[in-house]
Design brief:
single chain, alpha/beta, TIM Barrel, two-stranded antiparallel ribbon, 46% helix
Length: 296
């Protein structure tokens, strides 16, 4: 299927408090995204640290996000797992909660075959009626969803798209060539948002838009209206901020960035650690350089 996502989707961080997610703070972040023009929010994606959360915590956060959104933006729930049965169950649960779609990362650590990836996504798609987005991020999972496998997956009715975060532009171009008109491609790599959009990507699923939703949305809009000069200028302005947001492993920097904006984002859960002081200063400079008000 095509047309599920357009524009800017933000891969949301999860603020924690003692005993679980800080729902009040998360709600404030949702409102910031909506005010900034985000078209969709991804909850419990990699940036949301679901690997460190209990099933109860994840259910509570997903339910809260869907209820808070009230249809103002699309809500995608991250449901991927290294266990197909678990991913299917999580996707079914997300549909029951009222999610607009699910984002399922490729199975991690198992290093399954391409046939294994196909069967994994087919099982998820067959279990739900809502759109399913496949998430390819081999740097984290150890497995690469190849363009030819995505081409097979694109035949499945509710496979809405592929979030492509391999960092390989040649692969991204091959992917778009193979699935064009069958399902969509979303940029999952902030540094490549501009070229992927120009090559036919329909949306971005962005980390940087946690900090600058209006800026990332503006880039998407400029490409959509065909003003590539404006889009290039916007991409140039965002680039130092994107680079700073990946000075350490995601979501360490962006979480601290949200603290710097004045939100109650807290720190990542172990084994992730707080942002190192030198990188914090780098991030603060990049935020100020982009025009964001650093309050903390």
């Amino acid at each position: 299927m095509t047309g599920f996502l357009k524009g800017c989707a933000t891969a949301m961080i999860t603020p924690f408090r003692a005993g679980g997610a800080d729902l009040e703070s998360f709600g404030e972040m949702m409102e910031y995204q909506i005010a900034g023009g985000a078209d969709a929010l991804v909850v419990l994606g990699t940036t949301g640290e679901p690997a460190t959360m209990s099933e109860e915590e994840k259910h509570e956060l997903a339910a809260y996000a869907i209820a808070r959104a009230k249809g103002r933006v699309k809500i995608l729930i991250g449901t991927g797992s290294n266990c197909t049965e678990h991913a299917v169950a999580a996707s079914v649960a997300a549909e029951k909660l009222g999610a607009d779609g699910v984002l399922a990362v490729t199975p991690y650590y198992n290093k399954c075959t391409q046939n294994g990836l196909f069967e994994y996504y087919r099982a998820i798609c067959e279990a739900v009626h809502i759109p399913v987005v496949a998430y390819n991020v081999p740097g984290r999972t150890g497995v690469n969803l190849l363009p030819e496998t995505a081409e097979r997956l694109a035949q499945i009715e509710n496979l809405a798209g592929v979030k492509e975060a391999s960092g390989n532009m040649e692969q991204a171009l091959d992917l778009m060539r193979r699935v064009r008109g069958k399902c969509d491609v979303y940029s999952g790599e902030d540094a490549l948002n501009f070229p992927i959009l120009c090559a036919g990507g329909s949306a971005v699923i962005s980390v940087v838009s946690n900090l600058a939703p209006a800026g990332v949305k503006g880039l998407c809009t400029a490409v959509e209206r065909g003003d590539l000069k404006d889009a290039a200028a916007r991409a140039d302005a965002l680039f130092p901020l994107a680079k700073a947001c990946f000075a350490e492993v995601n979501p360490i920097p962006v979480k601290e960035g949200m603290n710097l904006l004045g939100f109650r984002a807290g720190t990542p859960r172990p084994p992730l650690t707080p942002l190192e002081p030198a990188h914090r200063e780098l991030l603060a400079r990049a935020m100020r350089g982009y025009g964001l008000e650093v309050r903390a």
